[in-house]
Amino acid sequence: MTQAPRTDKIQAELNQPAPYSGINAYRSDPLVVDATAGLPRALKEDFEAIGRFVTSAEAQELARMADHGAPQLRSHGPRGERLDVVEFHPAWHALMRRSMGAGLHSSAWETIEGERGQSHRARAVRYYLTAQLEAGHLAPMTMTSASVAAMAAAPVVQKEWAAKILARKYDSTNRPWMQKSAVTIGMGLTEKQAGSDLRATVTRAERVGEGIYRLGGHKWYLSAPMSDAFIMLAQTREGLGCFLVPRLLEDGSANGLRFQRLKDTLGNRSNATAEVEFSETFGFALGAPDAGQRTILDMVTLTRLDGALAAAGTMRAALAETVHHLRGRQVGGRALIAQPLMTRVVADMALDVAAATALALRVAAAFDRAGESAEDAAYARLMTPVAKYWCAKIAPMLIAEAMEAMGGNSYVEDWAIARHYRAAPAAALGEGGGNVLALDVLKVVARGKDLFEQLFAVIGRDLGPAGRKTFDVLRAAMSLCERDEGSTRLLVEQLALAGAAAELYRLGAGRLADAFLESRLAGGWRATYGMLDSRFDSAQIVDLLYPAAR
After folding, report:
1. Rg for the chain (alpha carbons), in Å?
2. What percentage of residues in the chain have a pLDDT greater than 90?
3. N or C: which end of the chain has fewer CB within 10 A?
């Protein structure tokens, strides 16, 4: 009987590594393992289960099919009747079912044994790991979770919807929300003429009953259009208000939301984003009729945290796949990863991924403690936009560099890194681009400098003596911002680098933190990767952050 050729022999003949699969995304990430060392055993077992799943062949195939099976809009039925239904690939529903079962949409608000006082941090780890698989389906996870913050402005509405939002049994049926086992929530904020300027919203809302309004207008981006309800902004007689708008009414009829078309997006193609027009559409007020921006702010803040986590997770997945490829590829008689130039480039990228991960998880921990710690409240307020700004900014560039290191294979859709590359820019686009985030930080410079002092106290303790010059730079950047608004990005980036370095030191990654601090904060202008000083052992950095699979 003829035997099939051995896999390792084929790999040797083709000079190609084995598929990147079956490598636990949690266990193979020493930084995150160390960062979660003090958490209960049950939580860490949960992280291990997610880590096993996201790199499994089954999960990778679901992600591939969901990404290639773009949602389809059915605006009308066979008799010409309005349907306004978006059909998703079965793989999308499988990913949704898995992530809702893991509580990505709910666990920050649940009272779970072992997660009290650290629910945001625990969820952040789950989200970061899941982002390493497929980012498109995470949009409804983010919006559903963050919607709870907006609904806090309307206790009656929150009480009615909370049980359905927190339920973990995914329900994709096209029924009114009160008939379903669980619901998801979307967002519709952006309008054609307004962009990120929410004050320019033209959608109107007229009061028709106690807490009930009739809306008319449009939304240019309505993400996850098959959600059961949407958070929207609209102009009332008193000012800009915030509303929860169900997709279907209690009798199952449409609530006036008419999908015009689906966006043909560059990445995250498994999700759908619709352009929608509506009239005679009913919604529930969330907060006072003129408090829309204040109400939406808490929700947007949480979505920004997820943006940072998604960017960090996507970078981690892309670089892990690249390192695996470089270890299995021979050039000149040795592994490509061992070539000096390549080692230096990969080590440089690994520092950014580690720093982004550490910073995003630190922000999540600040949310858990903000209610009882003024310093953590200041950290959450300032470092959420900072972390989202920096993590989202570096992701496309870093993944592009990783693709270059991996070579032409990375530019073919057979490889997961191609999906990660297309997804990367999305983190910077949602809920505030770079300038919007910088202006958010600038508000604190103008009105709340005491928050900076509390933030500096936190970062200073963790940076130690290494950070003395850093604070001179930060204070100079703050002073410059007061005179020149256009320089605010300088402050934001310096805050990100200082905060990331401080967290690396706090986690005990001293040598890594030294390399990061010296090359980012004490070094000159850097336009590409591979600029680490030879005093730092690049091979050791790579092996430490990306240990070889055994």
Report:
1. 24
2. 87
3. N
275 close to 222: Cβ distance less than 8 angstroms: yes
Other Cβ atoms closer than 10 A to 413: 11
Termini Cα distance of the chain: 32
Taking the C-alpha atoms of residue 483 and residue 480, their distance in angstroms, rounded to an integer, is: 5
Report the Cα 430 to chain-centroid distance in Å. 10
Residue 96: what residue type?
M
Cα 350 to the center of its chain, rounded Å: 19
What's the helix, strand, coil split of the chain in %, to 5?
55, 15, 30
d(CA 27, CA 23): 8
The predicted-structure confidence for 89-136, as pLDDT tens digits, reads as follows 999 999 999 999 999 999 999 988 889 999 999 999 999 999 999 999
Is residue 383 a contact partner of residue 444, using CB atoms and an 8 Å limit?
no
Superfamily of domain 294-545: Butyryl-CoA Dehydrogenase, subunit A, domain 3 (1.20.140.10)
CA atoms within 13 A on the CB side of 158: 14
| Alpha-carbon dihedral angle through residues 516, 519, 522, 524, given to the nearest 10 degrees | -150
Q: What is the mean pLDDT of the chain?
A: 94
Q: At which residue do the structure tokens 């598929």 appear?
A: 19
- The count of residues in the chain is 550
Domains 158-291 and 294-545 share a fold: no
Residues facing 335 on adjacent strands: 330
Residue ranges covered by each domain of the chain: 30-143, 158-291, 294-545
Residues 6 or more apart from 383 whose CB is under 8 A from it?
359, 362, 363, 366, 455, 495, 499
Q: Are 196 and 112 in contact (CB under 8 A)?
A: no
Can you spell out the DSSP letters for 503-522?
A: HHHHTT-HHHHHHHHHHHTS
> Are 394 and 387 spatial neighbours (Cβ–Cβ below 8 Å)?
no
Name the DSSP class of 83: E
- CA–CA gap between residue 533 and residue 346 (Å, rounded): 13
The string of DSSP codes covering 229-250 is EEEEEEE-SSSEEEEEEESB-T
CATH architecture of the domain with range 158-291: Beta Barrel (2.40)
Amino acid 292 reads G
Pairing of strands 185-188, 229-235: parallel
Amino acid at residue number 422: R
What is the band of 363 on the pLDDT scale with cuts at 50, 70, 90?
very high
> Token pair for residue 127?
């989200």
Whether the CB-CB separation of 319 and 349 falls below 8 Å is answered with yes
Spatial contact of 495 and 438, defined as CB atoms under 8 Å apart: no
Q: Using DSSP, state whether 327 is helix, strand or coil.
A: helix
